[in-house]
Amino acid sequence: MDSAGLRELLTFYADAGVDEPLLEEAADRFEETRTEAEKRAAQRQPAQQKAVAAPQARPAAPAAARAAVPDDAQAARAREIAKSAESLDALREQLSAFDGCNLKTTAKNTVFADGNPQAGVMFVGEAPGRDEDIQGLPFVGRSGKLLDRMLAAIGLDRTSVYISNVIPWRPPGNRDPSPLETEICRPFIERHIELVSPKILVTLGNPSTKLLLNTQTGIMRMRGNWAVHRTPSGLEIPTMPTLHPAYLLRNPAHKKLAWHDFLAIKLKLEEAI
Ligand code: URA
User: Fold this and answer.
1) Where are the domains of the chain?
2) 139: which residues sit within 8 A by CB, 6+ positions away?
3) Which residues of 97-134 are buried (b: 16+ CB within 10 A; e: fewer)?
């Protein structure tokens, strides 16, 4: 294949989200992270201590090693930290400093939010993709461009809406976040919504709908019907579940369903203001 053909093929892969080169043999990243963490911990030990340390003694696992395999303790820690944030700036800082989710170790950026926190409506998607990870902003890739067009169709843009995701770190290779990773991130998005206190919440796609509306019912049955998101402190926010723009890119025939949902959002916003 010539270089133009190769470039075209690589562009095709990148557009399809294939941007992680794989090895012939599976690599144990957990083991690598643990070994790295042990090395760093050993370097931090004062020389004197090193001299007396038993050769096979393993140093206490530092935060990065604990985060490699998510555990329930990290979810509890996330709940405590998120609860203590008194402002959006504080929450952003705490999220950026949080080391309890392994997704952070492979992400380039913590994707917090975009848009206007004073807006009447907040949109919540699933997780950043490749473009969002690079730019550190939600919905800036292909599905973000479609979301912008859908917003424009009801007279909104990023100055009149606020946008975030359930997961603030891109899962490697765009894989689905695990249930425990989602549980670790949940307190942050819940507190995020509580601090913004939008008049209306819009969940984009299945994962954010299931999480924020506490339901197992699929998006096709949920979409188009107003529901209620209850914040941890008991605030009730009218919520419209709708189809994710990435799904609409794959299934353009369903755009008419999303249009129906967006008209309902527009109407509710007019009533609320
Ligand atoms: N999909 C999402 O759910 N969120 C983003 O930010 C981008 C794509």
Assistant:
1) 71-272
2) 114, 123, 125, 132, 147, 148, 163, 245
3) ebebbbbbeebebbbbbbbbeebbbbbbbbbbbbbbbe
- Of 37-41, 45-49, 67-71, 115-119, give the range with the top mean pLDDT: 115-119
**Which CATH fold topology does 71-272 show?**
Uracil-DNA Glycosylase, subunit E (3.40.470)
Pocket test for ligand 1, best of 143, 150, 182, 250 (most atoms within 8 A of CB): 143
Total residues belonging to the chain: 273
183-209 per-position pLDDT tens digit? 999 999 999 999 999 999 999 999 999
Q: Is 126 in the pocket of ligand 1 (CB under 6 A)?
A: yes
- The predicted-structure confidence for 150-177, as pLDDT tens digits, reads as follows 999 999 999 999 999 999 999 999 999 9
Given ligand 1 and candidates 103, 109, 124, 132, which is best to mutate, with the most ligand atoms within 8 Å of its CB? 132
The atom number, within ligand 1, closest to the CA of 131 reads 7
Whole-prediction pTM: 0.78
Which atom, in ligand 1's list, is nearest to the CA of 204?
3
